[in-house]
Amino acid sequence: MTHRTSRIERKTAETAILLTLDLDGSGSGVIATGVGFFDHMITLLARHALFDIHLEARGDVEVDAHHTVEDVGICLGRALLEALGDKRGIVRYGFFMLPMDEALAHVALDLSGRPTLEWRADIPGEKCGAFDTCLGREFMRGLAIGAGLTLHVDLVAGRDPHHALEAIFKGVGRALRMAVGFDPRETGVPSSKGVL
After folding, report:
1. How far apart are CA 176 and CA 101, in angstroms?
2. Is residue 19 part of a domain?
3. How many domains are there within the chain?
4. Within-domain flag for 190
5. Which of 15, 72, 130, 140 is disulfide-compatible with 59, CB 3.0–4.6 A?
6. What is the dihedral of CA 17, 23, 29, 33, to 10 degrees?
7. Residue 80 belongs to what domain range?
8. Is the predicted pLDDT of residue 166 greater than 90, yes or no?
9. Rounded CA gap, 21 and 3, in Å?
């Protein structure tokens, strides 16, 4: 099987990002964004999606991590869209209910071509270490925009911000793993329109 891969490079006055993606990988990669907690979250997403991701990002983290996190989301979304090609034969939809200790996240998504984020996740606390917890939403918004992804995230339970964000990122990984998988009965693009 030929692996579905892509390479995205993005340079702005605020960030410089190089990202390679293999949708048919083993969940490995090298993640280096300069934001430790965020590196951990992307590593978890890749592992649970079984995506191989190589990511190098430099951003104005002396200001804060916002630009880096958002732009990585956009780049990963674009890489996902490019690697999927015409989306022929894929499952298209993915969902997962993921527990992480006391936290529980429900994720549902559609590789629809229509970027939408519905975020119903009140992360407890404003910080997780040095990471602003509100940036979880910014990453997912960038991912949805970049990939043309309809993404619903619901945090059903959670008291610890680390556990809450971990449940969400792992849940997104698992839902993506399902959605990009191949349906053996699907011979075309999984849409009545014939295009996604």
Report:
1. 22
2. yes
3. 1
4. no
5. 15
6. 30
7. 5-180
8. yes
9. 10
**Whole-number Å distance between alpha carbons of 69 and 67:** 6
Does residue 8 contact residue 16 with C-beta atoms inside 8 Å? no
SS3 101: coil
Whether 69 is covered by a domain: the verdict is yes
31: CATH: 3.30.230.40
In a domain, 113, yes or no: yes
| Angstrom distances, CA of residue 53 to CA of 43, 49, 122, 132 | 8, 10, 28, 23
**In whole angstroms, how far apart are CA 188 and each of 5, 78, 91, 129?**
20, 22, 11, 46
- Residue 15 pLDDT > 80, yes or no? yes
- Strand 150-157 and strand 127-128: the pairing is unpaired
User: Are 109 and 151 within 8 A, CB to CB?
Assistant: yes
pLDDT in tens, 31-66: 999 999 999 999 999 999 999 999 999 999 999 999
Task: Mark 20-51 as b/e (b = at least 16 C-beta within 10 Å).
Answer: bbbbbbebebebebebebbbbbbbbbbbbbbb
Q: Name the H helices within 28-160.
A: 36-49, 66-84, 135-147
